[in-house]
Amino acid sequence: MPHGRLAAGADSQAFARPVEITATGTAKTTIKAAEGEAATPQLLHVEMYGGTATDYPFDRHHMEAGFTATTGGTAVPVGVVFTDADPFFVLHPEATTASTGTVVLEAKITRSRSTFILAWFMIAAMWALALALAVLGAAEVLYRKREGLVWPSLGWMAATIFALIGMRNAAPGSPPIGSLIDYVAFFWAEGIIAASLTCTVLSGIRTEHQQRREREAAADGQ
Question: pTM above 0.85?
Answer without folding.
Answer: no
